[in-house]
Amino acid sequence: MGRWNRLNAIGTLAAIAMACGASFSAPTLAQDVDFSGGWSPLFHEDGPERIPGPDLGDYSGIPINNAARRRADSYDPERTSIVMEYQCRQHGADYSMRGLASLRITRDIDPQTQRVLAFHTRIGFHDMERTIYLDGRPHPPKDAAHTWQGFSTGEWDGNMLNIKTTHLKENYLRRNGLPASDRRTFTEHWTRHGSYLTVVTVIEDPIFLTERLVRSQSWSLDPGLTMGFNPCEYVPEVPAAEGTVPHYLPGKNPFLTEYAIRYGLPLDGVRGGANTMYPEYRLTMGKPAATPQQCTMFCRCMNVGGFCPEKP
Predict the structure, then answer these.
(1) 8-19: string of b/e by CB count within 10 Å (b at 16+)?
(2) 3-state secondary structure of 70
(3) Distance CA 111, CA 310 (A)
(4) H or E element in which residue 39 lies
(5) Residue 262 phi/psi, 5° resolution?
(6) Taking a C-beta distance cutoff of 8 angstroms, is the pair 38, 102 a contact?
(7) For the segment 265-288, what is each residue's pLDDT rounded down to a tens digit?
(8) Which of 26, 127, 161, 297 is the most buried (most CB within 10 A)?
């Protein structure tokens, strides 16, 4: 074999080796971040609100307007027992990750390109399932059907997955009657740090919010997680006349001050609103509704593990 033939042969073999190496050891890309697996929720953030549930009248930390406040003031918790349409209602996708149910994430992979096409989430409360499309498809027109979980698409930004969700049914911002309209949208930001997953949600609601509502939740990888199913049946739980919708008329809800009195907070502060969420509010917030001598509820729990008893 001549010198040039030998060089050509060597060059061809090198090219083949480089191609094979590229196919078997491609560099890690953002799209290779794998969120799939079983995840157990952590409750170091907003624990009492997320597990036992928020107090009536606690709207603190949420930039609501007067319309949302009036709707929440009329809320009676018996509504979920007497109005059967509420009994099996799922959380909206923007609220679902704040609950106490476990989360499972799976992914679809294109067999040809090996790129992730979609993530699927399942949360063990009323079998909430959602698909997050990563294939570039557009969102449906605004008059398309709305669902509890909405329509979600995702894009990568480095190692963070940004998700946009639209077409949500009316639901709630907090489980004490604070409403969320069917015109809201929200963005999620998923990041994974080893065995921990952090999800930050940013909700925009032109009907009930005056500013964006930002919240975060964290999860811990649980390789042994198993999930069953959570069937739900509509049944009369509390005797009531047909068509009854438990509610309070304006100014008639006797429980709206309990939260402020229990924790020694200003009444105006717990009523929510963007103006109460910034440090400057301390200059004008007024005096507490009461001065409790000691903590009587949720005093030592969440951060040390386990659920919260109502009293220590």
Answers:
(1) eeeeeeeeeeee
(2) helix
(3) 52
(4) strand 37-42
(5) -60, -40
(6) yes
(7) 999 999 999 999 999 999 998 889
(8) 161
Q: What is the pLDDT of residues 230-242, one digit of tens each?
A: 788 888 888 899 8
**Cβ within 8 Å of residue 273, ≥6 positions away:** 59, 63, 64, 65, 69, 210
Cβ distance 265 to 61 under 8 Å? no
Distance of alpha carbon 138 from alpha carbon 234, whole angstroms: 36
CB 307 within 8 A of CB 301: yes
**Which ranges of 46-198 would DSSP assign to H, the alpha helix?**
47-50, 66-73, 79-82, 84-87, 93-96
pLDDT of residue 31: 61
CATH topology of domain 37-221: Lipocalin (2.40.128)
Segment 97-109, tens digit of pLDDT: 887 789 999 999 9
Please give the structure tokens belonging to residue 146.
């709305």
Q: What is the DSSP string of 178-233?
A: EEE-TT-EEEEEEEEETTEEEEEEEEE-TTTBSS-EEEEEEEEE-TT---------
Whole-number CA gyration radius for the chain: 25
Beta-carbon neighbour count of residue 144 at 10 Å? 11
**In the 8-state DSSP scheme, what is residue 168?**
B
Using 50 as the pLDDT threshold, list the residues of the chain that sit under it: 4, 7, 9-10, 13-28, 311-312
In sequence order, the 6+-apart residues with CB closer than 8 A to the CB of 298 are 47, 48, 52, 308, 310
Task: Report yes or no: 52 and 259 within 8 Å, Cβ to Cβ.
Answer: no
CB 149 within 8 A of CB 90: yes
